[in-house]
Amino acid sequence: MKSSQFICQRSPGFSSFCLPFFCFLLLPCAVKAEQKTYRNSLGMAFRLIPAGKFTPGPPEASQEDAPWLTGNPCAGIPVTFTKSFYMGENEVRVRDYRAFIKAADHAEPQGELYSPKTQSWTSDFKPLETDGWLSPHLPMACVSFDDAVAFCNWLSKQEGRTYRLPTEVEWEYAARAGSDKVFQRSETLDPTKINGALAKDAVIRANPGDLEADAEEGFEDAEEKKETGNALLPGDAGLQAQEAYPPNAWGLYQMLGNLQEFVTMTRQPPESDVPFPGWTELPGKVNRMLRGGSFIHDARDCTVYQANFNCPPYTNCTIGFRVVLETK
Q1: What pLDDT, in 10s, does the model give residues 212-270?
Q2: C-alpha 179 chain-centroid distance
Q3: Which string of DSSP letters, residue by residue, matches 33-50?
Q4: Does residue 161 sit within a domain?
Q5: Phi, psi (5° rounding) for residue 101?
Q6: Over the range 288-313, which residues count as b (16 or more CB within 10 Å of their CB) and which as e?
């Protein structure tokens, strides 16, 4: 957890009187550098996640049982963040990803599509060539883990800052936002607050504030309220519909439901003769963790605790990502 830790050591050369005065002089710069909300050149908004400590997994679970109950090897082990970090306010959107594809000459996303009507999957789905998935404010679906990492590397180079995928503990810490409740705000899944369990039968767009900010910058959404008859349609584009899905206590939208989100792992599953939940034990396969569930996942997978796994290059319409921006 080096990227989210900060250890302040006192220099022997400072007296007890000089140190507080020196820190006072630096305080305005520190506050300015770590503003509560940051927006980059692509218009992506980030929320400052404060330093703190927590224990991943259900509070009632023992350290031994927690990983097996959640599928998260870090569950039950206390974590301390000594440095704040920025988390993307939204999942990476179509317009963000299009900029990456164009600038880096990266391949367009492609994977499987699920139809709630037929309850079946079809292959060779290309969201950027499919009506109903083209809104610039929709989250970018059908990305692989390698796609997500490539996006972060490109964005880091473009912005001169460090962007990356969140670790599994950073993701859960940010999703919980100081709460121990299963769904952050409640103990049961409320389909008017979380886009999971086919609450909308579709992925939905960015938050109201993001749409308003774009309007001020002159961005237009050509897909607004477009009816296509496709198996999956974007949610109602109106602000009223978006208000049904409020952010968590730290200002992050759709951490639960909507799309599953890739994270990096800091700990591997415990050694055991029993298969770890969701883990694939096949030669040549690399397991990548997904968090938050999606619009089609049931309540069990849309909690702040639960982890699932994916073996790239496979991907589908339920998989996306959001990014961390490291503080200076």
Answers
A1: 555 555 444 444 333 322 233 333 333 334 445 889 999 999 999 999 999 999 999 99
A2: 17
A3: HT-SEEE-TT--EEEEEP
A4: yes
A5: -60, -45
A6: bbbbbbbbbbebebbbbbbbbbbebe
Exposure of 48 in the CB half-sphere (CA atoms within 13 A): 14
Q: 163 vs 34, 85, 111, 119, CA distance in Å?
A: 15, 11, 25, 36
CA distance linking residue 56 with residue 78, whole number of Å: 7
Contact of 167 with 1, CB cutoff 8 Å? yes
Domain that holds residue 269: 32-326
Q: How many distinct structural domains can be found in the chain?
A: 1
Which residues are CB-neighbours of 261 under 8 A, at least 6 positions away?
91, 171, 255, 290, 291, 292, 320, 321, 322
Burial 258-279 (b: 16+ CB within 10 A, else e): bbbbbbbbeeebeeeeeebbbb
Give dist(CA 58, CA 170) in Å, integer.
16
pTM of the model: 0.82
What is the Cα–Cα distance from 258 to 232, expressed in whole angstroms?
12
Residues 6+ apart with CB under 8 A from 224: 135, 237
CATH (domain of 226):
3.90.1580.10
113 to 29, 126, 127, 240: CA distances (angstroms): 48, 9, 9, 28
Please, what is the end-to-end C-alpha distance for the chain in angstroms?
16
Show the tokens assigned to 72. Answer: 């998260």
How do residues 135-145 score in pLDDT, each as one tens digit?
Answer: 888 999 999 99
For residue 184 the two structure tokens come to 């952050």
